């Protein structure tokens, strides 16, 4: 990224955290529908039904899916219970559609901002239902202030429910050590670079050093035959895998975000690797979409075109 692009990305990440701006946009009859047009590049829609439609289509094309109702930092207990109910309905709908796939969620959406106990109780309630339908659960990783709590909840839950997994951010300096410990737990690890702005004493910025760390962590997971999702769109990392391992072993998969590099995921699937698409839905897309635009400045131009152009239909047709 050029310097102005880095500055734009930093500004967007900080705007995305600004609750006043967020609530202004949410309540604006002019701004909200306009920005929603840009959001539809990255989210399947507002409703569970739209997400399920996209999931079935993409699954039919030979991919696996992870579906998430977007939301985080829910600090009112009633709202956490409402979110948990939504995830319950999503898991039940997976069962009805015979989708033995993944439901993805952030622990702060279902209780962590209230208490660890609430998040654990809601997660295990969901895991119990999911286990009966052959559905797995992947927990996201949030800001570094929550890493300890998320890992503790994951460890406790995965001992009871091995189909619960956790996301690990390679950019945090602590992550290689966390990984060594997590190898003793059964759940899948989704390895990402990290989306949140963190200070230099806690994390690496995007850099060759970060890519090297990502590769070392991924190699440790592959060599230990641990279930792993390599969640990245970075071409240099993807090429390094192909050089080192060719097709991924069956305990590993590539995972990409909906709307990002679908043509590359299609190539990886054609080469024989297990490939998954992460499908978010819901009305709380604001923070998620800001992150997607910030990490790839070209998306700012795309967003502009989406906003001023004609209404777009779902992007699921880009998965072949
Ligand atoms: P990087 O950001 O270095 O980008 C490398 C290249 O990928 C770019 O040059 C571009 O070609 C392409 N690319 C990347 N982002 C793009 C975009 N938005 N639009 C178009 N092209 C793009 N993070 C987190 O902190 N907690 C979490 O729980 C998760 N969960 C998660 C699940 C899944 C399935 C994925 C794929 C990612 C996450 N992330 C996440 C986000 C992750 O941390 C990271 O911010 C993004 O994946 C972007 O990083 P890359 O590895 O793609 O590399």
What does the model show?
The radius of gyration is 19 Å and the shape is globular. It has an eight-stranded parallel β-barrel, surrounded by seven helices. The mean pLDDT is 92. The chain has a single domain, classed as TIM Barrel (Alpha-Beta Barrel), CATH 3.20.20.220. It contains 13 helices and eight strands. With 320 residues, the chain is α/β, with parallel strands linked by helices. Helix 1 packs antiparallel against helix 12. The structure holds dihydroflavine-adenine dinucleotide. Dihydroflavine-adenine dinucleotide (FDA) binds next to strand 4, strand 5 and strand 7.
Which descriptors would you attach to this protein?
single chain, alpha/beta, TIM Barrel, eight-stranded parallel beta barrel, 13 helices, binds dihydroflavine-adenine dinucleotide
In short:
This protein has about 325 residues and is α/β, with parallel strands linked by helices. It contains 13 helices and 8 strands.
């Amino acid at each position: 990224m050029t310097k102005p692009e880095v500055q734009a990305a930093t500004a967007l990440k900080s705007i995305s955290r600004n609750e006043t701006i967020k609530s202004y946009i949410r309540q604006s009859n002019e701004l909200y529908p306009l920005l929603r047009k840009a959001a539809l590049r990255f989210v399947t829609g507002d409703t569970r039904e739209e997400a399920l439609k996209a999931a079935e289509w993409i699954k039919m094309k030979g991919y696996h899916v992870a579906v998430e109702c977007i939301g985080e930092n829910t600090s009112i207990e009633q709202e956490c219970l409402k979110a948990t109910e939504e995830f319950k309905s999503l898991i039940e709908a997976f069962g009805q559609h015979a989708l033995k796939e993944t439901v993805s969620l952030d622990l702060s959406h279902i209780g962590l901002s209230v208490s660890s106990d609430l998040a654990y109780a809601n997660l295990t309630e969901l895991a119990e239902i999911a286990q009966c339908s052959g559905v797995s659960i992947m927990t996201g990783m949030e800001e570094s202030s929550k890493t300890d709590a998320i890992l503790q909840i994951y460890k406790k839950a995965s001992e009871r429910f091995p189909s619960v997994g956790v996301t690990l951010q390679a950019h945090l300096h602590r992550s290689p050590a966390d990984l060594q410990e997590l190898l003793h737990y059964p759940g899948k690890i989704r390895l990402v670079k990290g989306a949140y702005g963190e200070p230099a004493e806690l994390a690496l910025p995007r850099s060759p050093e970060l890519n090297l760390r990502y590769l070392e962590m991924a190699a440790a997971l592959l060599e230990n035959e641990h279930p792993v999702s390599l969640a990245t769109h970075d071409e240099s990392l993807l090429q390094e895998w192909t050089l080192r391992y060719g097709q991924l072993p069956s305990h590993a998969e590539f995972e990409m975000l909906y709307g990002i590099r679908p043509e590359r995921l299609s190539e990886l699937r054609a080469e024989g690797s297990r490939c998954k698409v992460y499908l978010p839905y819901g009305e709380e897309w604001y923070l998620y979409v800001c992150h997607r635009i910030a990490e790839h400045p070209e998306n700012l131009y795309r967003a502009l075109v989406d906003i001023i152009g004609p209404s777009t239909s779902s992007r699921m047709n880009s998965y072949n």
